[in-house]
Amino acid sequence: MAARPVGLPQESDFALDEVELDSPKVGEALVRILWASVDPYQRGRMSEARSYAKSLEIGDVITAANLGEVMESNDPRFNPGDLVVGQLGWQEYATARAGTLRGVPPVLEPPTLALHAVGLTGFTAYFGLFDIGKPRPGDTVVVSAAAGAVGQIAGQLAKLAGCRTVGIAGGPEKARDLTELYGYDAAIDHKSDDVAEALRGERVDVYFDNVGGEISQAVQRRLNLGARIVICGQVSQYNAQRPEPTFHPGLLVVFRARMEGFLIFDYAHRYDEAALKLAHWVANGDIHWREDVTEGLENAPRAFIGMLNGENQGKALVKVAERES
Amino acid sequence: MAARPVGLPQESDFALDEVELDSPKVGEALVRILWASVDPYQRGRMSEARSYAKSLEIGDVITAANLGEVMESNDPRFNPGDLVVGQLGWQEYATARAGTLRGVPPVLEPPTLALHAVGLTGFTAYFGLFDIGKPRPGDTVVVSAAAGAVGQIAGQLAKLAGCRTVGIAGGPEKARDLTELYGYDAAIDHKSDDVAEALRGERVDVYFDNVGGEISQAVQRRLNLGARIVICGQVSQYNAQRPEPTFHPGLLVVFRARMEGFLIFDYAHRYDEAALKLAHWVANGDIHWREDVTEGLENAPRAFIGMLNGENQGKALVKVAERES
Fold it and tell me: A302 CB near a chain B CB, below 8 Å?
């Protein structure tokens, strides 16, 4: 991070830098990074505002989830050539404590699934929907940013749980993906549709919210009694210097509703549960996914800015290097 | 209701009217009203805005909880002379279906307890705190409008549950009641104290919110991880023509927190549970209470407007008539 972004980040807020590489100490592994993930939460780390994690300082490597291969291991859990995921950052190599890495099973094909449908964004959809949203068969589940990395999985999980699913996304290509690729029962393109009008007649039991702001205000007009609003993200607010309040708590009395936030890192002890189920559903063809790949670490900032603008179609990933082994 | 209030209600929005009295039909009872309750939710009924209950129309009797004595009964459940509570309205007499009335046990002394600590406002504190707030021993529970009818009970219930309790009220008399009468561990007078400053160092596990607005925004800066915000009321917003949003849902992610609304009428099947426990605690001296009595039905509007302005100290009640039997 070369400068702290103000509003929408600019490419000049980032810089490529060369630093000396440490050899892995006992209990560590040296990882060559193949893929870097691009996710909205990274914007929060670049801000000084108080949040759930420490802010990045100027000069810090951008926090990111990565897929890489082990080059050297000083821990019995990993051998050279192993594919691993971990929070290594936007860089080409990283030494990491072995306990912070997860092995990628060789059967996972493509292995980049470990960065989305069978990785953190899939886990986010899984725990957010099931643990917080608690859908029941017959419920109507509305997902915002429904074609995004989390949203695409959340909608399909709700469908597997016997729910009616309505996805909201921006632009006709994403809206088409919602029904044709991700199996949503209905799609709303918030760039061309009036969201509240499009939801007329729906009774929303679960609202899986990734965006906040005006889209959420429209959805909240259509809540059912006892609705659950899952606050996964509020990407519409991430670039605001001073985000304005967007919600009136009295609405929760009217609908006897619950709004709850969660953070995927609190579920680390249950990642295996989610990974097993998600891998099974992906292998069965019950869960579909799309990747939006940008080539070259130097283009990560552009991919990130594009994602914050909603330009990606599918999970935003940066390909950093080809696998060697 | 003579006119639909705009903003803070005025006495001219109300009128006394004489109408013919119906005799009770089969399954009904005629009740002479002794006491009328004055509660913030009544403001919502006077508004046309969509809410959980139908709006009042011009000429309708103001909705209210009442204590009265049965004059004539056409139902085996009640006899003349029985004390009952029910939603009868601001009037001197009412015929009501017997199933909508609850008998007041003769041991309840004074019987007006059935309109507050052992009535709807007590039940509201009981279910809101225990079912929605889910306090654990050692938790810090903050209550807004803590000297009000619901707040005074919520704080004492939290204390019984082994929590540290902090009450927020307006003015030195109410603040004194908080610690001296209702047993709060700490009191904040929001008219003279900076609420966020006063809460510095607190980690709020449960926020039982009756008011919303700026006071809530201050409390929310001091949430603990996993906090529960119980939305009982938002009285600071009730007179607003177009209430502005006051809450940023992203806060729920930062604190992995839950915000949930509830409506006491949904708990009607469990009123007996709450009444038994509350009556026991009141009889034991574990729960203290204060009434703020206005004499005469004609003064109910004034009492109501005063309550919306926070002028009452204790549960606002209107004494309509003396008991005859």
Answer: no
